[in-house]
Prior knowledge:
Blueprint: H1 2-18, H2 22-37, H3 43-51, E1 72-73, E2 79-80, H4 83-93, E3 100-104, H5 110-117, E4 121-126, H6 129-141, E5 147-150, E6 163-168, H7 177-181, E7 183-195, E8 198-208, E9 211-220
Parallel strand pairs: 3-4, 3-6, 4-5, 6-7
Antiparallel strand pairs: 1-2, 7-8, 8-9
Amino acid sequence: MTRNVQEYQLYLTVDMEKTDNYRHKGLRKKLIETIRSKGIRDEAVMEALGKVPRHLFMDSGFINFSYTDKAFPIAAGQTISQPYTVAFQTELLEVRPHLKVLEVGTGSGYQTAVLLELGARVYTIERQRQLFLDAQKTLGHLNYKPLFFYGDGYEGLPAYAPFDRILVTAAAPEVPRSLLDQLSEGGILVLPEGDRFGQKMIRVVRETADHFERSEHGYFSFVPLLRGKNK
Ligand code: SAH
């Protein structure tokens, strides 16, 4: 009997964590204040972060830390980005409703959800099969509907180009030419450039067909953008 009660309580706790309740919403508000204090200004970005239940994108072992401003491990040796970093990249990307956005590195799907909350049409690509499958489950469960692709984001998605925005959430030694080619005129690409010893956030605006304006926006730390896809 006692055992059953304990099991029931455990079940309740787990189930609570699978929903989004007032406690989670409160924690998100605090997280957003932290991000604001670190210099993010775009209210639409903050509002989007306020809507996405980050705890549902986390590995169960770290769920209690979902609303701390830190990156955490997910499957396949990858990470769910730090909320501040997600906000920073999203702000630089200037996402507006209906824009066509390519996201390279679906990972947990958290950043994907933020882009969708901003009203973008999102094409997201992941090279790790397990993450590609997990993210579809998580996002599907929450009724988010990006287009999912399993493949090498280095190549982008030529069949679906051009994109108004391209967001890369893993670090590359340089901006891949293939991605620049898939950017529409007036489009913006954001990517962390560098190796494991240091990465700079890069923003490229395609002013005209053959003129690209590049700017740098501080130092970050990402997992590497790798070639090919992984089963
Ligand atoms: N935005 C994600 C970040 C995940 S980390 C989140 O917040 O959860 C970066 C992701 O990029 C990893 O899942 C990694 O597998 C993926 N990745 C690395 N190289 C890639 C490539 N060439 N194509 C597609 N995805 C890639």
